[in-house]
Amino acid sequence: MLNVIVVGCGRVGSRLAGMLSDNGANVSVIDLRADAFANLGRNFNGSTVQGIGYDGATLEKAGIEDCDIVAAVTQSDNANLMTAEVASRLYEVPHVIARLYNQNHERAYMQLGIDYVCGTSLVAEETFSKIVSGHRAHVESFGDYELLRFSLDLSWSGQDSVHVSEMEREHDISVVAFERKDGSSSSIPTGESVLHQGDLVLACVRHDLVDSFKKYIQA
């Protein structure tokens, strides 16, 4: 059973908490306002904690020391980022997701290795999809395949670049597009295209091959 903390109990947080609870997860919801928990409805069977989402004592009361996933979905980018940093850096939660309003910060989030959901509609559904997928690079599922978006990590290989053809051949994937890490250019690749450490990559991978491919995804 997944242990999940949802920070923020507005429209998005309450819907996400309900979806996770209905899917069998053990859910704890944090919000600064006690009256926000009314959004959960009478059928919610998780727990609630009143407090600040990035406060250590509050997170510990919510069970962060045994937590698998933290989803910070308040209406404040700063609060969500602080919660994500505390959960991942201090408590080493395996999967942390932050809601992001300002799309100008997407690149920074990806390069920092922070999983996020950007937008104002269907945020709960997209966050739920990421949680169920079990990894931070998930964008969408298509039958037996997943579309992944990630910052490329080659540190394990001892190299700072790799040919697209090599990556595709060894892992039976398709690189759909990439963008240079400095934002200078983006392209639909050919087999001869070269990817560098930190480049942003969009790739299609079979579900059963995602685990073996994760070494390329910057944590």
Summarize the structure.
With 219 residues, this protein is of the alpha/beta class.
Topology (SSEs and partners):
Elements: E1 3-7, H1 11-22, E2 26-31, E3 47-50, H2 56-62, E4 69-72, H3 77-90, E5 95-100, H4 106-111, E6 115-118, H5 123-133, E7 138-142, E8 145-151, E9 161-163, H6 164-171, E10 174-179, E11 186-187, E12 194-196, E13 200-206, H7 210-213
Parallel strand pairs: 1-2, 1-4, 2-3, 4-5, 5-6
Antiparallel strand pairs: 7-8, 8-13, 9-12, 10-11, 10-13
Helix pairs in contact: 1-5
- Strand content range: 25-35%
The span between the termini is 23 Å
Number of strands: 13
Give helix and strand order, one letter per element, not per position.
EHEEHEHEHEHEEEHEEEEH
Major sheet summary line:
6 strands, parallel
Overall pLDDT confidence: 87
Strand line-up of the largest beta sheet:
3-2-1-4-5-6
Task: Output the number of helix runs.
Answer: 7
Bulk shape? elongated
- Structural class, please? alpha/beta
Q: List low-pLDDT spans.
A: none
Helical residue percent?
25-40%
Provide an overview of this structure.
- The protein is α/β, with parallel strands linked by helices and 219 residues long.
- 28% of the residues lie in helices and 28% in strands.
- It has helices at residues 11-22, 56-62, 77-90, 106-111, 123-133, 164-171, 210-213, and strands at residues 3-7, 26-31, 47-50, 69-72, 95-100, 115-118, 138-142, 145-151, 161-163, 174-179, 186-187, 194-196, 200-206.
- The strands form three sheets. A six-stranded parallel sheet has the order 3-2-1-4-5-6, sandwiched between helices.
- A hairpin with a 2-residue loop joins β7 and β8 (145-151).
- The protein is elongated, with a radius of gyration of 18 Å.
